[in-house]
Specification:
homodimer, about 35% helix, about 20% strand, alpha/beta, 7-stranded mixed beta sheet
């Protein structure tokens, strides 16, 4: 039977359950407003490794192991690992998956990757292709700055519209059975590009994609924003959030007090000098795994729309003057 | 009902059908042994664009459009696009997906990407999450050399173990209904790494992953190599193929005359100076879309095991002295 409703949304008959999450965060993230909710906060972002890239691999590996350890399962029980990151050729995910020795699907959705991993994972489980899936996404500030922008040592000044790549990995074990929280619907995003070219303003590049997916979700499901206790975008930041509100208002959808953004939540704007907020695959992955998941488990949040957002750039495309395409995937996650 | 058999394989109850494929190949690929089977052979690998990266995007976009045009469907009918490539941050797939305006899952499995796209696509269809999925993978020799190795203008000499990145895109429309060929089983690979560090010998890096997936497939399904008319690996090349045979022989599986390799088939070793063979996401994607698919449609091949192989490297990991992890996904595709 077809489970599609509308043009971009699927409805799960027997919604998969997120049975555990794990979060390993960098030092700066640990000093932020959500610091207390992460499983592990690193004292050193090198995490005992010789390079930032090796640290990113080790963080991903440790977070995925921790998510499994929190269940009564073993890594052997995971039917698939679905994971991605920001490094070229999904470098940290591939190397982390090597040591975990389970069937692996590498994915790339920039900072929306955790949403893509949970979406695909939920679909494979409901499809009957396994009992348990490990979904994860991570990023590392130092590895990302080096790869996408400038050598850290240069101390380049960052514009106020820029965001700070979050260091860490968020991981989740999803199961065919469980007591919730449940992934009830998934609205898969299209690539949207309104022509923003400024690599220091990714919020502006992603906001149109977030609006597109959000509007599709409401259209496909017939819901309105009030249905949800929380609507949490990935990493639009202060700049992108305002644009999202504007774009949705134009279409008659007013986003109000239940609108949150993981990028705004994870850092203290005044004390931590992160300008527009946090970004990177780890931003929504950590905020969900460390913060929102626990509130869903205690029923403090009953209905959440989680919308990780991604800016699909690379240095070559930006160097060649191309604009920055965005994508966003929405997941309706409910406590029961 | 669980559709898993053994540890890594899933069995489709109502196998999805590949209802069309399209192939756009570069000039050199057009001059090779399979030249006549591609839909379009480019006269210029820039494909009317200003850069190799823009050419790669345009080729991907055109091939995906062509795969849909060959059906009686429109792009609007595609429930998802699942696509990946070799450019940093899956650059060509994201930009191509933008102009096609359908829900998009970006994936990365290096040269195994087409196998990953078909695997995930088949699972989503059987799971009821759509009627039609567009799966594709592409690469471009010039963009890949520039990104992974040396500037082309340097004219660097290539070792005999090296392979030649294939220019082009292979795309397929998979459907819940159809007259075949059918994707009957999928064996998803683990990341395998036996410590090969030579970026000019990717066949050696990938052969252990191909062996691992192949052995898992035979173990999970109880089949032997003789079950298949054709067992086609992605891009092991001459060097990797011999290693695969050795690794399988050690485990008591003898691979014989039905073993093919897309990397060996796509170029003429003697006339085209490609050394160990072809590689890149487009290698298996083009060879399947242009060559094998047609033979499956005419029943000339009845049972095929298609095993795209990928070397999960990036220049940073190799620069930091790390070895090259490999992955391979196997698909049992049958004409009826």
């Amino acid at each position: 039977m077809l489970k599609k409703i509308g043009s971009q949304t699927v409805n799960f008959e027997k919604p998969p359950s997120i049975i555990s999450t794990a979060s390993i965060a960098g030092r700066k993230e640990g000093e932020g407003p959500l610091g207390d909710c992460f499983d592990i906060v690193l004292s050193d972002d090198l995490h005992g490794q010789k390079s930032w890239e090796l640290a990113e691999i080790k963080i991903a590996e440790d977070a995925m192991k921790k998510a499994v350890q929190k269940t009564d399962l073993t890594m052997e029980d995971m039917d698939y690992i679905i994971c991605g990151d920001l490094l070229n050729q999904c470098g940290s995910s591939s190397f982390a998956a090597h040591s975990l020795k389970r069937p692996f699907f590498g994915i790339f959705g920039a900072c929306s990757t955790f949403g893509e991993a949970l979406s695909l994972g939920a679909m494979l489980l409901e499809g009957g292709f396994g009992k348990y899936i490990l979904a994860a996404a991570g990023s590392h500030f130092c590895a990302a700055e080096k790869q996408f922008r400038f050598p850290l040592d240069l101390g380049t000044q960052r514009p106020l519209s820029s965001t700070w790549t979050v260091t860490g990995t968020g991981a989740a074990v999803i199961s065919r059975c469980g007591d919730g929280p449940f992934i009830k619907q998934v609205t898969t995003g299209k690539v949207v590009d309104l022509g923003v070219k400024d690599m220091s303003n990714m919020g502006a590049a992603m906001a149109p994609a977030a609006a597109d997916t959000l509007l599709a979700h409401f259209k496909d499901t017939g819901k309105s924003p009030e249905y949800y206790d929380v609507i949490a975008t990935g990493d639009l930041g202060f700049v992108g959030r305002e644009l999202l509100k504007e774009l949705c208002a134009k279409e008659g959808i007013l986003l109000g007090a239940n609108l949150f953004d993981c990028g705004i939540m994870i850092f203290d704007r005044k004390k931590q000098d992160t300008h527009s907020g946090g970004s990177g695959c780890a931003c929504s992955a950590l905020t969900f795994s460390g913060h929102f998941y626990k509130k869903l488990c205690t029923d403090e949040i009953k209905k959440m729309l989680f919308i990780p957002t991604g800016a699909l750039i690379n240095t070559t495309s930006s160097g060649q003057g191309m604009s920055i395409p965005g994508i966003a995937h929405a997941l309706c996650i409910e406590s029961r």
